[in-house]
Amino acid sequence: AARKLLLLPGDGIGPEAMAEVRKIIAYMNAELNSDFSLEEGLVGGCAYDVHGKAISEADMAKALAADAVLFGAVGGPEWDSVPYDVRPEAGLLRLRKDMELFANLRPAICYPALADSSSLKKEIVEGLDILIVRELTGGVYFGEPKEIRDLGNGQKRGIDTQVYDTYEIERISGVAFELARTRGNKVTSMEKRNVMKSGVLWNEVVTATHKTKYPDVKLEHMLADAGGMQLVRWPKQFDVIVTDNLFGDMLSDIAAMLTGSLGMLPSASLGAPDAKTGKRKALYEPVHGSAPDIAGTGAANPIAMIASFAMCLRYSFNMVAEADRLEAAVAGVLEDGLRTGDIMSEGKTKVGTVEMGDAILAK
Ligand code: NAI
Ligand code: MG
To answer: Which residues, chain by chain, have CB under 5 Å from ion ligand 2?
Structure first.
């Protein structure tokens, strides 16, 4: 059976970056006997323009039926004043919700060729390869009550509620342990058990999950604030970090800054394994947005999108050799000195989106 991919290029530089992935898929089908079948849909502002909402029901159905979804980026100034419920971002939120993508994977990799141009010290970032696993569908961003309450005395109270149930912690830590087995075999769990009940439970459930199912993986616990400090001080001590929605949001943005440009950062969001097939629903997307400031100029860095496809090969299709090869090709063109504008430094060769994509494919 063919591997079914749904491409949702979206807005701005999304389609420009996706075009480079499309070339790689065409090459794999033609030359490597891969069997990807592609479907296409609209998401974000472009979907609003056609359907009046950020993703149509037909495209949602395609996403649910696909083996994996590749997502570009959504949004732009054209849609700044559309109604809140149908704004471009609503398309991504709908996909995450309906596909039940509870595990967000954010790798922070520092390619050797870019270590010199990092804003951080070379010895700290060179060769960095860590993976942050963030819980994406629970915690304080979703817990009830969530409101601004009028206290009637001229005061208001803003309320968000951090809630985690055992099953949510079990499934996210299971993803982290499984991924660790394919990498450095170490998981660091981060919470604030010293001040939060949800942190106490998080710690207990991760510990129990480790003991019963993954005793071969090394596990350590760290308070999330100390973890943030350690990420900046000596990030290479980590392999896989597992943490909740809020801490994961912040820690993954901190880790992103260790690696250079937004244009380099891929991500994956995974759901639970299907009871029958064992396959997880999955969506792969660059961390960056639609970059309206450079859209249409051919200057966008396609590496984040291409690296997201490499994650897709690795995690949705277990095509580990192909994923390794694609990532090595990215490292190789950087080694050769090719740079898009966002990662340009002195003495390097400046190229555009298409040239970068072509060079990676050639490599
Ligand atoms: P952004 O990530 O689009 O751009 C931030 C800066 O980084 C810009 O200067 C941009 O040119 C640069 N940049 C980003 N990706 C790049 C790439 N691949 N190559 C070269 N340079 C790159 O974030 P911004 O400007 O805050 O948001 C722009 C639009 O994107 C907004 O409408 C926002 O809502 C949307 N957005 C969408 C996201 C998504 O689709 N997941 C995520 C973040 C923002
Ligand atoms: Mg964030």
So the answer is: 249, 253
